[in-house]
């Protein structure tokens, strides 16, 4: 029985070749982006996700490209070749980076006043005095949010 319909444009062999091309692109690009790779290869960027779902070697190549992207962004930022603010913004959007805040509690156990120090990026402390009305002995020494 012959199959009807249009022949599949993106065969497993084609996707395997694209996997190799993706890693080579990632190595050569100043900062690799999967959207740029897709456009250079002549297809739209949503196909990248489809290829990764359908083909294990392409999925692996995409992970390698994302690792190379992360390394190049961080190294570019640290060497000041890339704008630090723009790079951090990009890393938050493409690499899952996020801001962390650390809250440190200190004070006595007798129901008195407790000081809360809010530390952002471990660089500066902003001190806020807070009156505690419940049992302060149950307050953990350090809370990270």
Characterization of the model:
With 145 residues, the protein is an alpha+beta fold. The protein folds into 2 domains: 12-94, no CATH class; 101-144, no CATH class. It is 47% helix and 18% strand. It contains 5 helices and 4 strands, in the order αααααββββ. A 4-stranded antiparallel sheet has the order 3-2-1-4, with no helix packed on it. Strand 1 (101-107) and strand 2 form a beta hairpin. It is elongated and about 60 Å long. The chain starts with 11 loop residues before the first helix and ends with a strand. Mean pLDDT is 77; it is low at 116-145.
Summed up, what is this model?
The protein contains 5 helices and 4 strands; from the N terminus they run H-H-H-H-H-E-E-E-E.
Question: Radius of gyration in whole Å, from Cα?
Answer: 25 Å
Tally of strands: 4
Strand order in the largest sheet: 3-2-1-4
- Tell me the major beta sheet: 4 strands, antiparallel
Gap between N and C termini = 61 Å
Low-confidence stretches: 116-145
Percent strand equals 15-25%
Count of discrete domains = 2
Q: How many DSSP helices? A: 5
Structural class: alpha+beta
């Amino acid at each position: 029985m012959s199959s009807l319909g249009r022949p599949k444009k993106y065969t497993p062999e084609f996707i395997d070749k694209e996997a190799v091309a993706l890693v080579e692109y990632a190595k050569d690009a100043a900062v690799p982006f999967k959207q740029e790779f897709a456009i250079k290869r002549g297809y739209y960027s949503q196909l990248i996700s489809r290829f990764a779902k359908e083909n294990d070697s392409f999925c692996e190549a995409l992970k390698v490209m994302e690792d190379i992207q992360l390394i190049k962004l961080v190294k570019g930022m640290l060497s000041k070749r890339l704008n630090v603010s723009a790079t951090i913004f990009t890393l938050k959007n493409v690499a899952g980076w996020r801001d962390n805040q650390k809250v440190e509690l200190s004070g006595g156990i007798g129901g008195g006043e407790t000081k809360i120090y809010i530390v952002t990026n471990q660089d500066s402390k902003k001190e806020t005095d807070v009156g505690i009305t419940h049992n302060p002995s149950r307050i953990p020494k350090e809370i990270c949010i």
